[in-house]
Amino acid sequence: MTALLYFFALFSAATATIVSNVSSSYGPFVADIIVGQPLDGFVSYSIEFSSFPDFAGNVSNPNKFSNNLLNNLGYLIGTKPYIRVGGNTQDYAIYNPNLTFALNGTINATRSPDYPTTIEIGPSYFESYLTWPNVKFSHGFNMGGNHDDRQWATLLQTAEIACKTLGKERLYWWEYGNEPDLFATSSQGPVRPSSYNESDYVTEWLAATRAIKGVIAKFCPDMLGNDTYGYLAPSFAGVGNHLKAPLAWADGLDTDGTLHFRRNLTRCNAPGHFNEPYTHTI
Ligand SMILES: *[C@@H]1O[C@H](CO)[C@@H](O)[C@H](O)[C@H]1NC(C)=O
Ligand SMILES: *[C@@H]1O[C@H](CO)[C@@H](O)[C@H](O)[C@H]1NC(C)=O
Ligand SMILES: *[C@@H]1O[C@H](CO)[C@@H](O)[C@H](O)[C@H]1NC(C)=O
Ligand SMILES: *[C@@H]1O[C@H](CO)[C@@H](O)[C@H](O)[C@H]1NC(C)=O
Ligand SMILES: *[C@@H]1O[C@H](CO)[C@@H](O)[C@H](O)[C@H]1NC(C)=O
Ligand SMILES: *[C@@H]1O[C@H](CO)[C@@H](O)[C@H](O)[C@H]1NC(C)=O
Ligand SMILES: *[C@@H]1O[C@H](CO)[C@@H](O)[C@H](O)[C@H]1NC(C)=O
Ligand SMILES: CC(=O)N[C@H]1CO[C@H](CO)[C@@H](O)[C@@H]1O
Question: Given phi > 0 = left and psi -120 to 50 = alpha, else beta, which region is 194?
Fold first, then answer.
């Protein structure tokens, strides 16, 4: 399963309370809605990393249409939806500090016809996190690397910009790597050898998340509390793939005690993946 877009429920003590009201033809009915039930951020969304600038816009051109939709949902739910920025394309995104626009994506239809598999992001990519007030985000760091020797520099550079931009008010949790259980077998082109196993994954994951933590300690030291520093993980695509989640846990994925759960209630498939079964797992 290469789910790019799905609904998921996020459990957190954090609250992103909406402050704006929206006009509605439902009139007094909306005022009677009990906010915050059944769960904070009960309806939340994942936005494909490469599409985030389109959905959110930037500081000079914020996407007000998207914000209005989120406000309306927020008014009905009690909190604005939480937004995960990630998916397959987070693992292709290479940081280029000289890029003068948000994202340079190139589609290779042989690899994937519906999203770019060669991607550079520039400093203004992160402006998209500033266009939707009172939304909490998870930012997806690039673990796959796409065979680009700027992968490690990208991680350290984006960790600094992401923590400075999001701050603890906007951050939900971090995510390092999307569906790493498919890295060795990806139909878009493997990014790890076939010998890649759970202990390799755990070693790599711990080393990189500790490096991210080092960057945060330097630039955003107020984001290292137990309620502000953590990861959505293992972010596996399924239960029958090359890496198995139970083995990753057994191999020490949560050695640092930084993992937070994600449970999906309903998911919908992304374009190009409609052949997959639609699942309800409430
Ligand atoms: C939202 O607007 C409705 C209708 O004007 C009003 O009754 C309600 O108190 C407002 N809610 C908030 C949270 O401002
Ligand atoms: C960015 O541009 C500067 C000035 O042209 C150049 O020196 C530097 O190597 C470039 N950096 C990258 C990562 O391309
Ligand atoms: C902001 O978005 C507008 C509209 O898409 C675009 O023209 C502009 O180049 C963007 N600014 C930056 C710095 O990317
Ligand atoms: C965007 O990426 C393509 C390669 O995918 C490259 O040919 C092009 O020069 C890049 N554009 C900019 C402005 O960096
Ligand atoms: C597109 O992807 C295919 C399969 O990975 C590769 O063989 C081909 O060289 C790529 N084309 C370009 C222009 O990069
Ligand atoms: C995983 O692969 C590494 C080499 O990449 C090897 O050292 C290790 O023994 C393997 N672990 C298991 C459990 O097979
Ligand atoms: C943070 O969590 C760790 C591990 O659960 C615990 O040992 C530590 O006391 C906590 N720190 C605070 C400030 O609550
Ligand atoms: C995308 C995702 O996490 N899907 C999972 C949703 O829950 C079912 C059952 O618990 C899993 O099989 C899916 O992998």
Answer: alpha
Amino acid at 220: C
Cβ–Cβ under 8 Å, residues 46 and 84: yes
**Is 28-260 a CATH 3.30.428.10 domain?**
no
The rounded distance, in Å, linking the Cα atoms of 150 and 154 is: 6
Pocket probe for ligand 8: among 266, 279, 282, the residue whose CB has the most ligand atoms within 8 Å is 279
What are 205-251's pLDDT values in tens digits?
Answer: 999 999 999 999 999 999 999 999 999 988 899 889 999 999 999 99
What stretches of 93-202 adopt beta strand conformation (E)?
A: 93-95, 103-106, 118-121, 137-141, 171-176
In the block, residue with structure tokens 């008010």: 169
Domain ranges of the chain: 28-260
| Residue 71 in tokens | 């406000």
Q: Are strands 118-121 and 103-106 parallel, antiparallel or unpaired?
A: antiparallel
Q: Which atom of ligand 7 is nearest to the CA of 226?
A: 1
The one-letter amino acid code at 183 reads F
Q: What is the pTM of this model?
A: 0.82
Backbone dihedral region for residue 254 (phi beyond 0: left; psi -120 to 50: alpha; all else: beta): alpha
